[in-house]
Specification:
heterodimer; A: 394 residues; alpha/beta; Rossmann fold; 2 domains; B: 175 residues; 21% strand; Pyruvate:ferred/Flavod_OxRd (chain A)
């Protein structure tokens, strides 16, 4: 039987991990991820989860150990945040290049300097090129569900790529809410035990892994990895549909539109700010305004065609970025503009940057974003890239 | 939607109070609730905050909570009347753990530490203040749900005493 519990996002991930029955968890604690790895550790200690829990001395070692474990076909989980993610960065392409289906939670947190433990999405944007599937969740239930789904996606033979699940630091990791915990039997049925893959080692088939490939072969390795990551989009969508059939909760695949079909004005968001924007959309809809919302759930592989289909009726589009690519603009804005050009869709787009270093993105700020988009839709000139909830002019 | 803020000092259990209220409303009243602490590094003795949102519908708002229906003070050294500006409406209530008497229609006082010492033997007043809050916030959370939440969240050895403390304060307040 499934049951309801009052959990924060970190705990929800920990329950998702427990239900997925990993063989190995290797992790180093860092705020605001700590509760997740402590909870998993307590599951192991009290016998609720049979797995090898490796207490490593750094994030670099957490990923190195995960690579070792996954190389022999162990279902492997780790978790990190912020500077910890950057510290393990060197290992991330080793994992993806070796086609190891590791699942990692990342608590999105600001990057130094100035040092800061609060939430923004600067950390993961450094790693979009690491060859990992990048998923962003909106609430604790989605965090639990996507932890389970992520193992299934990662281990799919057409994918064989590591998956990173991004949760906004504190706003998701530390907020408690009602979460449905599926039964172990149901999860076992959805996610059978992982039995390895032909490119993984065992005693009978010793092999060299993470070998060198020179200029005669390297490009083909990389192109094959790229091709398979592109095709992972289809698997992400089918795994989500299968999950919905079994558990009654689905998330629409890589993109979820909210009141978007007849909307002239659309805002595109990732992660927890989506929930706040839903409140603002409901308010504006009740006033008869044709506004909508697009939640970008998967940023790698990038859902080019799905995005085009979802936004096709809109007149103007705003992209909320909780990150800055210094010297340019918000990273999602760059990605979304490129996707629209690839799909031959010509729309006016604007970039709204906020939430840096844990700054609240208020409902008033989101209202102002929609109002600015409305002005743009009637031909007024507004800034292409603008910043919200800023305390003083700079 | 009801929005509630808890004030206390690190170690006084104010966030545990918020969590109990969230458990009560979401798991036993079958409403939806959020409970979240003031984010960041906290220290014993330093002022800390806890927050709740409670609604009949799913709550998606993730922004900071500024205006409240109810505000709870576990420690009166943190209280001053300027907090009344943070109430959403004229019907809002501030409940304060204090030995003082404050004459104001929106401020309700109780010596929760005294009850905690008598019933629990320790000056941890969160379940007492939950009881006092619940007596004024009947639309947000039910009496029985709070008792069920305490029972489910605490070890049996301390749950009964905390339920007694909760009831004692509930019976002193109320509208």
């Amino acid at each position: 039987m499934s049951r309801n519990a009052f959990l924060n996002g970190d705990e929800a991930v920990a329950y998702g991990v427990k239900l997925s029955r990993p063989h190995v968890v290797a992790a180093y604690p860092i705020t605001p991820q700590t509760i997740a790895v402590e909870k998993i550790s307590s599951f192991v200690q009290n016998g609720e989860l049979q797995c090898e829990y490796m207490h490593v001395e750094s994030e670099h070692s957490a990923m190195a150990c995960s690579i070792g474990a996954s190389s022999v076909g162990a279902r492997t989980f780790t978790a990190t945040s912020s500077q910890g993610l950057l510290y393990m960065a060197e290992c991330l392409p080793y994992a993806s290049g070796a086609r190891l289906p590791i699942v990692m939670m990342n608590a999105n947190r600001a990057i130094a300097t100035p040092w800061n433990i609060y939430g923004d999405q600067m950390d993961v944007m450094f790693l979009l090129n690491a060859g990992w599937v990048q998923i962003f969740v909106e609430d604790a239930q989605e965090a639990l569900d996507m932890t389970i789904q992520s193992f299934k996606v990662a281990e799919h033979k057409a994918v064989m790529a590591p998956v990173m699940i991004n949760l906004d630091g504190f706003v998701l990791t530390h907020t408690y809410e009602k979460v449905n915990i599926p039964s172990q039997e149901a999860v076992d049925q959805f996610l059978p035990a992982f039995t390895g893959a032909p490119h993984m080692m065992n005693d009978e088939t010793p092999m060299s892994m993470c070998i060198s490939a020179g200029n005669q072969h390297n490009m083909e390795f990389k192109l094959k990895q790229h091709r398979d990551l592109l095709s992972a989009l289809e698997i992400i969508e089918s795994v989500d549909r299968e999950f919905e059939e079994q558990f009654g909760r689905g998330y629409g695949g890589a993109i979820e539109g909210y009141k978007h079909e007849d909307a002239e004005i659309l805002l595109i968001t990732t992660g927890s700010v989506t929930g706040t924007a839903r409140v603002v959309v409901d308010q504006l809809r009740s006033e008869g305004k044709r506004v909508g919302l697009v939640k970008l759930r998967v940023v790698r592989p990038f859902p080019v065609a799905q995005l085009g289909a979802t936004i096709k009726n809109a007149k103007v589009i705003g992209v909320v970025d909780k990150n800055i690519s210094f010297g340019y603009e918000g990273t999602l804005y760059t990605n979304i503009n490129s996707a629209l050009i690839q799909s031959d869709i010509k729309k006016e787009t604007y970039n709204f940057i906020g939430g840096i270093g844990g700054r609240d993105i208020t409902k008033e700020a989101i209202l102002e974003m929609y109002e600015n988009l409305r002005l743009a839709s009637v031909g007024e000139s507004i800034e292409k890239v603008s910043y919200y909830n800023v305390r003083c002019a700079l | 939607m009801f929005e509630i803020r808890w004030h206390g000092r690190g170690g006084q259990g104010s966030f545990t109070g918020a969590k109990l209220l969230g458990v009560a409303a979401s798991l036993y009243d079958e409403k939806f609730a959020q409970a979240f602490p003031s984010f960041g590094p906290e220290r014993r003795g330093a002022p800390v905050l806890g927050f709740n949102r409670i609604s009949d519908e799913k709550i998606t708002d993730r922004s900071e909570l500024t205006k409240c229906d109810y505000i709870v003070f576990l420690d009166d050294t943190l209280f001053d009347e300027s907090v009344l500006d943070d109430l959403k409406s004229d019907d809002g209530i501030v409940v304060v753990n204090t030995q003082r008497q404050i004459e104001h229609k929106n401020i309700k006082c109780i010596d929760a530490t005294k009850i905690a010492l008598e019933v629990l033997g320790i000056p941890i007043s969160n379940t007492v203040m939950l009881g006092y809050l619940a007596s004024y916030a009947k639309e947000a959370v039910s009496y029985q749900a709070c008792i069920d939440a305490i029972k489910a969240s605490m070890k049996a050895s301390i749950a009964d005493k905390n339920i007694e403390a909760f009831k004692s304060a509930y019976n002193q307040g109320g509208l």
